[in-house]
Amino acid sequence: MIRIGQIPAILLLLAAVAPAAERKLGKPLTAGAPVSLQALYANADSKVGKTVQVQGKVVEVCEMAGCWMNLTDDKGNLLRIKVDDGVIEFPKDSVGKTAIAEGILEKRQMTREQLIEQSKEEAQESGRKFNPASIKSGKTVYQIAGTGAAILD
Hints:
By secondary structure, the chain is an alpha+beta fold.
């Protein structure tokens, strides 16, 4: 028999062994198990235009509207998950947490000028300084046009 005085201890124990909470955003995830960013980049060109699901650590979220988040892995790979404003709002307190995201993989060839403009806008949104001289040339950029995500608490 459980005594009234034991209830707080039991609840605390249950909370400690309960699985991590998950905040679901957007449409339900449907692509099965997520792949690592490293695995995605190893085959990125063959996945362009297809639905992919990835998992990584959230390192940055759009401060203005929560319309994008950047994921990374332990190998230093970085991938942006981008949505149209208002479709999904990635929580700003997600930084440092693990996320699973799904959507269509896009590939964009960006000029130096486009990268400077994008970086300037991002720096302004997040209150960082930006030096245009830090961008030497254009590059190929992959990102996911996000449809759904889960933030693991």
